[in-house]
Amino acid sequence: MTAVLEIEHLTKEFQRGDVATVALRDFSLTIEQGTFVTVLGRSGCGKSTMLNLLSGLSKPTNGRVLHRGSPHTGPTPGIGYLTQSDTLMPWRTVQRNVEMPMEIAGRPKPERQAAAAELIATVGLADFADSYPRELSGGMRRRASLARMLANGAETILMDEPFGALDAQLRSELQRELLRLWTATGHTIVFVTHDVEEALLLGDRVVVLGPLGAILLDQEIDLPRPRDPDETKIHPRFVELHATLVRALKEGARR
Ligand SMILES: Nc1ncnc2c1ncn2[C@@H]1O[C@H](COP(=O)(O)OP(=O)(O)OP(=O)(O)O)[C@@H](O)[C@H]1O
């Protein structure tokens, strides 16, 4: 297997005046191409800090990230990042929001219009292409953000609790869509969550983090795919893995 991201001994300190806060300490991980890795951890354990470093938006205090074998020094179109917050432009329709990355990249208008329409259909928003973000539900805005991120052409996708604020029904729907998209494209996904069920339903591998990003467990998820949420949750192996992950999280809380 080919490594897409090699994370080597990352440490991140935030300096405010004389006080330094360590958010991540000596974090190392290798992400293989085409895998779906979920990163599970309690609030404050450094998950967002880690994704910010992987995206290239933030620089480590120590350590480095190799992206396809080369040191990663800043944001690149090859890595898409879906943050927790909504970053759609309120004055642009869904269509024009999704076209934006391609506009910046200088792609001709007819080409980017067609590509955006296809992505919008992929995330199930074809009937809302001409709507403005304020006219959409929270779930629809997430879908639009996802389509816009895919418009960058990124093959490696970082997602920071993307469905955290949604109701259970919508969350299940989007989880299904994301899995369908991942199966169709073969992209590499690093998905951060604090939800044990979500981590298990989605991932090939779940990495459980403790304080300062300490890896408590790196667990392969050998559940059959496709994973229908309702059926998977009652699978004996799911129940067993769920208990294993909860145990690891509890151990982390005692550290
Ligand atoms: N810009 C910053 N300045 C100072 N401290 C920060 C900054 N960003 C994060 N931290 C600290 O780093 C630690 C890790 O934060 P981070 O947001 O990475 O955690 P998280 O696991 O993503 O949490 P959550 O699940 O709540 O989003 C926290 O103690 C936080 O207070």
Automatic annotation (TrEMBL):
SUPFAM superfamilies: P-loop containing nucleoside triphosphate hydrolases. PROSITE patterns: ABC_TRANSPORTER_1, ABC_TRANSPORTER_2. Keywords: ATP-binding, Nucleotide-binding, Transport. It holds the Pfam family ABC_tran. The keyword Transport applies. One of its GO terms (molecular function) is ATP binding. It comes from the Bacteria. The keyword Transport applies. Residues 5-236 form the ABC transporter domain. This is ABC transporter ATP-binding protein.
